[in-house]
Design goal:
- There is one protein chain.
- By secondary structure, this protein is mainly alpha-helical.
- It is built from twelve helices and no strands.
- It has helices spanning 2-15, 26-38, 44-72, 74-88, 95-106, 110-121, 130-159, 161-175, 187-214, 217-227, 238-247, 258-289.
- It starts with a helix and ends with a helix.
C-alpha cells in the first residue's frame, strides 16, 4: 500500500496546485500553547514527559481512527492514508513556489520574487534584492525538500499515517524555536529541538545518499566529509549541513549563476524522488515475492 500512497500523493502534490489552504495546524498550536501554559517543568524528565503528551495525544487519536476505518472498510483506510500524507506534506508548497521565484527573478519582478522567498524561507526579505536571496534559497531548497517531503515519506513508510503526523508535529514545534539563540531558549525548546534532530537523523542521511547517487557522488561525499565544517556558522544543525553539502555537490568545475543553481537543485530533487520511488517498488516487489 505504501508504494501506491506515495505515487498518488506525489502526483497530487505536483498537479493539484497549492494545497496550503487545506493544511491548517492552528489546532496543534493552540494545544501546544494550552499545554505549556499549564505545565512549566524544569526537570528534564518532566519536559520529556510533556513532549510525549504533546505528540502522543493527536497521534494516538489519529491511529485509533485509522484502525477503525481499516476495520470498517479497507478502501476507506487507503484513502485516509493518502489524505494524511498529503496533509503532512508541507505545510506549504515547494516545487511550484521555487519555480515561481526563479521566473520572477528572471522577469525582474522583484516584489513577486520576495513574496515567494518569504513563503519558502519563512523570513522577511522586504528590503533584500532577489539577487541576494537566490544564493540563500539555493542552499535551503535541499533542507526544505527533506522537511516538507522526504522525511515525511520516510516516517510514513516506517510507522504509517501516525509516523507522518509525528514528523510534521515535531517539525512545527522545532520551527517555533527558530531565531532563538541557544542560550536564550527554554528547556522545553532545547528538548524539542533535540528530539527533532534525532527524528531527522536517519531520513536526512538517506537523502544525502540519494543526492549523491543521483548527482555527483564523489563531489557530494567529499563536500560532506571535508566541506561540512566550513559552514558551521550557517548550518549548525549537522543534519541540515550534510544535506546542503551533498545537494550543492553537483560538479565542482561548473559555477552556475544562483538561479541556474536553484534549477539544478530542483532537477536533482526530481531524480532523487524517482530513486526513492524505485527503491519503494523494489521493497514492495520483494515482499510480494516472499
Amino acid at each position: 500500500m505504501t508504494l501506491f500512497v506515495f505515487v498518488i500523493c506525489l502526483m497530487a502534490e505536483r498537479f493539484l496546485g497549492s494545497l496550503d489552504g487545506y493544511r491548517k495546524f492552528a489546532w496543534f498550536s493552540r494545544f501546544r500553547a494550552w499545554l505549556t501554559a499549564r505545565i512549566s517543568p524544569t526537570a528534564t524528565w518532566k519536559i520529556r514527559l510533556m513532549l510525549l503528551v504533546l505528540f502522543a495525544a493527536p497521534i494516538l487519536a489519529l491511529q485509533l481512527f485509522y484502525m477503525w476505518i481499516l476495520y470498517s472498510l479497507t478502501l476507506l483506510g487507503f484513502a485516509f492514508a493518502c489524505l494524511t500524507l498529503l496533509y503532512c506534506f508541507g505545510p506549504k508548497g515547494f516545487y511550484e513556489e521555487t519555480r515561481a521565484f526563479c521566473d520572477a527573478v528572471r522577469g525582474k519582478q522583484d516584489d513577486t520574487a520576495r513574496w515567494y522567498a518569504n513563503k519558502l524561507l519563512d523570513r522577511d526579505f522586504a528590503n533584500t534584492p532577489p539577487s541576494e536571496i537566490a544564493p540563500i534559497l539555493g542552499e535551503h531548497i535541499f533542507v526544505i525538500a527533506n522537511d516538507r517531503i522526504f522525511a515525511v515519506m520516510f516516517w510514513f513508510a516506517v510507522l504509517g499515517p501516525m509516523g507522518a503526523l509525528l514528523y510534521r508535529l515535531s517539525s512545527l514545534t522545532q520551527h517555533s524555536t527558530r531565531g532563538i539563540a541557544p542560550e536564550s531558549a527554554s528547556p522545553f525548546q532545547r528538548e524539542s529541538t533535540r528530539f527533532h534532530y534525532w527524528l531527522n537523523w536517519i531520513p536526512s542521511r538517506l537523502l544525502v545518499l540519494g543526492y549523491a547517487a543521483t548527482g555527483n557522488f564523489v563531489e557530494s561525499m567529499s563536500r560532506c566529509s571535508q566541506g561540512a565544517p566550513s559552514c558551521v556558522e550557517r548550518w549548525p544543525d549537522m543534519n541540515e549541513r550534510l544535506l546542503v553539502c551533498a545537494g550543492i555537490g553537483q560538479d565542482s568545475t561548473i559555477q552556475p549563476d544562483p538561479i541556474t543553481r536553484i534549477e539544478l537543485g530542483l532537477a536533482l530533487l526530481r531524480r532523487t524522488t524517482v530513486l526513492w520511488i524505485g527503491l519503494t517498488v523494489l521493497v514492495t516487489l520483494t515482499r510480494w515475492a516472499s
